[in-house]
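Action item from last meeting closed. Structure (121 res):
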């Protein structure tokens, strides 16, 4: 069982920047090695969608809507994945979820609790 704890998020003006982080740990307390970690988001009335994902080796996958604006990275030693978001738009407003255990284009079975990102003036 993998636990994902997210931090970051909040309210930001259009054009602004925000960072999210997500730390993974095993419920048993032992170290867990995760191949792919990623971020998904769900806006009101819409389906959850992939934002970005990254392998342990650093290969990445981004949604077209965030390419050039968002950067995903990870620290394997800390089992932590980060999402740096810049040039934020109102349409980026959503609940952002950390995900682990899947593939670059397929979500895994482990989800974080979600963190709200609101882009508004």
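Sequence:
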């Amino acid at each position: 069982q993998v636990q994902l704890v997210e931090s970051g998020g909040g309210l930001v003006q259009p054009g602004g920047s925000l960072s999210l982080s997500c730390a993974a740990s095993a419920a048993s307390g032992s170290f867990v090695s995760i191949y792919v970690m990623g971020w998904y988001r769900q806006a009101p009335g819409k389906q959850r969608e992939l934002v970005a994902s990254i392998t342990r080796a650093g290969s990445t996958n981004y949604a077209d809507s965030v390419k050039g604006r968002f950067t995903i990275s990870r620290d394997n030693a800390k089992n932590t994945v980060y999402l740096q978001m810049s040039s934020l738009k109102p349409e980026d407003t959503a609940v952002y979820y950390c995900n682990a255990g899947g593939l670059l284009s397929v979500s895994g079975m482990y989800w974080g609790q979600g963190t709200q990102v609101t882009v508004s003036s």
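Note appended to the action item: The mean pLDDT is 94.
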